């Protein structure tokens, strides 16, 4: 009411939107996470660029843009990716960190990349609306050396930038997927019991056979509640 106090503003993520870039369904295929940084919010910017693992050049672009102006980051997320990653054991040592290969944009038809491009075009249209134009927004081009020879905002430029800047938002699933025993990729049965090992269950987002079209925290709690009954 008074616009002050700990609940008067959100933390890093200010707004989340779910859209369908193809307008062919009531179900969303893209999430857009919006993050606002007031002028000189270097600590918040640093936290963001470290979290997603941006290169030094891209991180520097954030800092330069934020020196004298507030910036708004709009981060599209493909909700139903066709690409599939893999996780492998590094060694027999149970304490050794596993090998994680996300395999972004590895789907044969390239659908994930095109969905990403559609999401960026949506953001461009959003920024061009009357409400946004009141604030005189400008799209900032970050330094991405491999994309330097491409016209800014062209399809080829965005495809290049997408491949260089894509990261995780830490909602992976399916590394211990639930499925029938005759499925070579299934790890647990419908009661979450680990195949081939007695008295062991897996109860987290890893048992989801496919990823959901939203964040995984609430469904993970539901899985835990169901397994505990």
TrEMBL record:
Chain ranges of the Glucose-methanol-choline oxidoreductase C-terminal domain: 81-224
InterPro entries: FAD/NAD-bd_sf (IPR036188), GMC_OxRdtase (IPR012132), GMC_OxRtase_C (IPR007867)
One MF annotation (Gene Ontology) recorded for this entry: flavin adenine dinucleotide binding
PANTHER family: CHOLINE DEHYDROGENASE, MITOCHONDRIAL, GLUCOSE-METHANOL-CHOLINE GMC OXIDOREDUCTASE
Entry's family note: Belongs to the GMC oxidoreductase family.
Protein name: Glucose-methanol-choline oxidoreductase C-terminal domain-containing protein
Organism of derivation: Aromia moschata
Lineage of source species: Eukaryota, Metazoa, Ecdysozoa, Arthropoda, Hexapoda
């Amino acid at each position: 009411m008074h616009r002050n106090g700990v609940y008067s503003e959100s933390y890093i993520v200010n707004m989340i939107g779910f859209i369908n870039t193809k307008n062919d369904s009531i179900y969303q295929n893209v999430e857009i996470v919006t993050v606002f940084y007031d002028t000189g919010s270097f600590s918040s910017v640093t936290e963001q660029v470290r979290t997603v693992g941006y290169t030094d050049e891209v991180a520097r672009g954030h800092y330069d843009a934020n020196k004298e102006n507030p910036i708004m980051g709009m981060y599209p997320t493909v909700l139903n990716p066709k690409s599939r990653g893999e996780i492998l054991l590094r060694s027999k040592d149970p304490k050794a960190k596993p090998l994680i290969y996300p395999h972004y944009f590895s789907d044969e038809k390239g659908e994930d990349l095109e969905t990403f491009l559609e999401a960026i075009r949506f953001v461009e249209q959003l920024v061009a609306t009357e409400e946004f134009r009141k604030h005189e927004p400008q799209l900032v081009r970050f330094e991405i050396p491999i994309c330097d020879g491409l016209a800014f905002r062209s399809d080829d430029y965005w495809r290049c930038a997408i491949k260089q800047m894509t990261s995780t938002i830490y909602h992976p699933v399916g590394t211990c997927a639930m499925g029938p025993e005759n499925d070579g990729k299934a790890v647990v049965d419908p009661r979450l019991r680990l195949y081939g090992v007695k008295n062991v269950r897996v109860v987290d987002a890893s048992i989801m056979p496919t990823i959901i079209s939203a964040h995984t925290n609430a469904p993970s709690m539901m899985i835990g509640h169901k397994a505990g009954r």
